[in-house]
Amino acid sequence: MTDQREVSIVRWPGRTLSVEDGLAALLAAYHLRTEAEKGEVVADVDGLPERYRTEISDPRIAFVDDVVLVALSGSVAVGCLVVTAPADGRLEIKRLWTDPAFRGRGVASGLLDAALAHVAESGVDTVRLSVWKWRTGAIALYERFGFTITESWDDRDQLVCMERAV
Fold this sequence. Notes:
Structural class: alpha+beta
Strand content: 25-35%
Distance between the termini: 26 Å
Strand order of the largest sheet: 1-2-3-4-5-7-6
Helix content: 25-40%
Radius of gyration: 15 Å
Order of helices and strands: EHHHEEEHEHEE
Number of strands: 7
Largest sheet: 7 strands, mixed
């Protein structure tokens, strides 16, 4: 577990984060890994679907209505998470990613703690997320945070949908 002084969570927008701060690199790693795990290996970001390339190239536009949380170790971005804008009385958590070199140090838990604090202030009743079934470590983490598997709202095969009351 990381000493809390080593990793800080910042909210973006609200703090100016540029591509140099690593958000784009984290999003690229997330999407490239996800495509590979689905068996659709792509060589680089240019091979990703357009919607993912947009997130990477211009997160300010892609997440304009959302809250992006970034975990920093010093000035290096080591993790990220997106909380979508409210819809139908719910928020959604997506794009939780920790740089593999920083895993096992509490980064993802810190991001989830910060996300749930934001959700609690938002006035919604429910927060939800989806995760690929082979990401068993992530599913276990979400369950520790009180998420339970629920009926799918997404028809993609092997996607597990989870939610929790706020």
